[in-house]
Design goal:
Blueprint lengths: L1 H7 L6 H19 L12 E2 L12 E8 L3 E10 L4 E11 L2 H4 L3 H19 L8 E5 L3 E5 L2 E4 L16 H12 L7 E4 L1 H12 L3 E7 L3 E8 L12 E5 L17 H8 L8 H6 L1 H17 L10 H4 L6 H9 L1 H10 L6 H36 L5 E8 L1 H5 L3 H8 L3 E7 L3 H37 L1
Helix pairs in contact: 2-13, 4-5, 6-16, 7-9, 9-11, 9-13, 11-12, 11-13, 12-13, 13-15
This protein binds beta-D-glucopyranose.
Length: 460
Amino acid sequence: LKCVKQHLIPFRLSLEKLKEVSTRLRKDMIRGLGKHTHHRAAVKMLPTFVRATPDGTEKGDFLALDLGGTNFRVLHVRVMEEEQKMVKMDSQLCAIPQEIMLGTGEQLFDHIAACLSEFLDSQNLKGQTLPMGFTFSFPCEQKEIDKSILIRWTKGFNCSGVEGEDVVKLLKEAIHRRGDYDISSVAMVNDTVGTMMSCGYRDQTCEIGMIIGTGTNACYMEEMKNVKRVEGEDGQMCINTEWGGFGDDGSLEDILTEFDKVVDRTSINPGVHTFEKMISGMYLGEIVRLVLMKLTEKKLLFKGEVSEALRTKETFETKFISMIEDGLENAKKILTELGLTWDLVDARVVRLVCETISSRSARLCAAALATIVDRIRANRGLPHLKTTVGVDGTVYKKHPKMQLSMHFLAPDCKIKFLVSEDGSGKGAAMVTAVAQRLALQSRLLEESDGEEDEEEKVRS
Ligand code: BGC
């Protein structure tokens, strides 16, 4: 066991190291926000044009689209002011087969438009044009709430002809190609923003959204005066940090292990999303598999014999990690299914490897979240901050242990975690609802300004 532990040392990050990582991220966030530094920044800090969180007066019916994992979903959502509730009226799921994930953009958007058409038919909604929110969980340069240019694909996607293009335009073109229905305005939303906004309807102190699922990312409410790339000094805007890209300029070299480097090299996007590849569900299982292979080669596991399954890329699924952490019985079952011959010590070693990899993921996320929370505190000049983080993603739900590290990494902040239910779908509806509320408020304000001017004239 001592020899095994020796091999796992590079994954064990001390509190000091995590604080260093947090300081590096703080600097990268400032670089991402800067007018002249953002184009070279690894952490992109993308403006979202979401200027407020819910205040509880939002209402209405909305359509929400959600693309980010292996499925595409369409939802009909009703926001009910009286009951302060968001209700999913109905929804439909369409799988995105791998050949579409790696095919052309046209195929992808035709598939989405077909799925949407089927849903509208089944709900008898084709005649109406409900306002629509589109949760698109990839890094996008937003020009406005309804203009969103894909910077690059992440996770398992790599469709040609979409990077550098406006996603709203591609969706509308696909719908026009069909010609059987039309849509009105579309608000583009990252899943972190959707999560923050749907949690924000339940708890109005929620100003951070975080995802630890297939990918990882976070957003938060930043002061407009610090968002140098968007005009205006007043109020706030939600920033999509895209923290998955942290380290893409080599800044995390000292904590990358040989296994992280193999995961990156053999991925469909080498050099992209370094931080994400140490943390999120798409990669954790593969890291564990590589470590197990190495320990077996060193004759520290399975009497030095690997099975065909263990030798094959991505056969060790991320969900096995939490299952194995839950109990040795699960470990034994999974090892047998992977065609391995094991003894009790092997099962214990495998469990130790799983715990090590999932704790590193949790601790790195905690360090990154601490950076954001502390930034909000400092922005407001407060000695202490109490705030709420809306979270989603299976990796978080199965490993909530990151909460423990927060206390040490952001000692001046008291953080409540609110797990979002269906956040990335319902959140898109909420973003649309808040945008409508703000538009209505500013129209009313203009009208009342106009009336005051009239009165002024009459008086003079
Ligand atoms: C994407 C983010 C997204 C995250 C979580 C990352 O790969 O770049 O935009 O929020 O995954 O889904």
